[in-house]
Amino acid sequence: MSTLQSLVPASARPRLTAILTGWLGPSAALLARNGELIAGAPTPPRNDSCPVNFELEEIGRIYAPGCKPETLVQAAAMMELLLDAWARYQMAAELQEAVVEADYSELMARNAELAASEARYKTLSEQLEQRVREQVAQIEAAQRQLYQAEKLASVGRLAAGVAHEINNPIGFIKSNLTTGKDYVGRIGKLVSVVRQKDMQTLSILWQKLDMDFLLEDFSAMIDESIDGAERIARIVADLKAFSNVDRAEEEVADINENLRTVARIVSGQLAAGQRLDLDLQPLPPTLCLPAYLNQVFLNMLTNARQAIAGHGDGFIRISSRQVGKEVLIQIIDNGCGMNADTQSHIFEPFFTTRPQGQGTGLGLSAARDIIQAHGGQIEVDSVPGRGATFTIRLPGGR
């Protein structure tokens, strides 16, 4: 049951007192059912009153001595309207407060759920990042292993070709030394005759040993052996220039010199009747990784050499020139060529057109990655049966 005390808040009572006394006189008062003064005169008289009802029950009375009865009735009716409005307001406020409290509780619950979800997401994100880092590390390690495998395969192919090149001069140098040893023995036979100063015997022995031919042939053998030794020295120098594949420092280099070095290495591996031509135009000094470019050129020239295998008139042409700010290098052959499908896959790891066991399928993939690491591009244009053209574009004058 509602009481007048609960319906009229303390904060509103001074104003209600002013209204009552101003309307009904200074002695007017509003008392609760238990006699408690709610508003008006502190000691109101106990006569001339009118009940104040709320929800059909009397909850208080208005006292106003000397006031007309109809005025008291009007004042009581007005008070009842005020109390009803105040009760409705209070009910709405409490309902609003309850709704706000419920909304706040729901909001806090959702916020807690979001916080928990965010925490789970953060944990999952961190776990995912860790897994990505681990996967990237594994991929990089695998890629390094693949490049190492290709490098070793390149070195193996290079060693096989170079061994053949070195064996040729070594073979005739060894033969010349064997013959030279025999010639020295013949010359030794003349020494004792010369010491005896027996010119007749010396002349007979000179003719018998065919010394005129021996001296002429000996000189030719020495010249041939010197040429062979110089050829071996050039091969070793080219290998030394090529071999520093693990050097990671950038250097300012003449790319034409790199092309010449690799061309000399590969040219010795061509079959009879095949040729390797150079058309190298002046290039600006270029900041690069020369040893890695050597590996690119070797891989591509090896592919070109394999493409012209079986072609008695096969040729490979290497050209270089500066186009604007780019260095343009082309490696052209008149070999077997490739169809469009093969061209679309040749830069993929492990793709090879060689018989199983004769190629790693990493040469051109590694070449592409090295060229891209230099900020360049590598392209291919080929027609089956008419050869292929590989074009390398590098930033010039870096």
TrEMBL record:
<keyword id="KW-0418">Kinase</keyword>
<dbReference type="InterPro" id="IPR004358">
    <property type="entry name" value="Sig_transdc_His_kin-like_C"/>
</dbReference>
<keyword id="KW-0597">Phosphoprotein</keyword>
<dbReference type="InterPro" id="IPR036890">
    <property type="entry name" value="HATPase_C_sf"/>
</dbReference>
<keyword id="KW-0175">Coiled coil</keyword>
<dbReference type="InterPro" id="IPR003661">
    <property type="entry name" value="HisK_dim/P_dom"/>
</dbReference>
<feature type="coiled-coil region">
    <location>
        <begin position="114"/>
        <end position="152"/>
    </location>
</feature>
<dbReference type="InterPro" id="IPR005467">
    <property type="entry name" value="His_kinase_dom"/>
</dbReference>
<feature type="domain" description="Histidine kinase">
    <location>
        <begin position="161"/>
        <end position="398"/>
    </location>
</feature>
<dbReference type="InterPro" id="IPR003594">
    <property type="entry name" value="HATPase_dom"/>
</dbReference>
<dbReference type="GO" id="GO:0000155">
    <property type="term" value="F:phosphorelay sensor kinase activity"/>
</dbReference>
<dbReference type="InterPro" id="IPR036097">
    <property type="entry name" value="HisK_dim/P_sf"/>
</dbReference>
<keyword id="KW-0808">Transferase</keyword>
<protein>
    <recommendedName>
        <fullName>histidine kinase</fullName>
        <ecNumber>2.7.13.3</ecNumber>
    </recommendedName>
</protein>
<dbReference type="Pfam" id="PF02518">
    <property type="entry name" value="HATPase_c"/>
</dbReference>
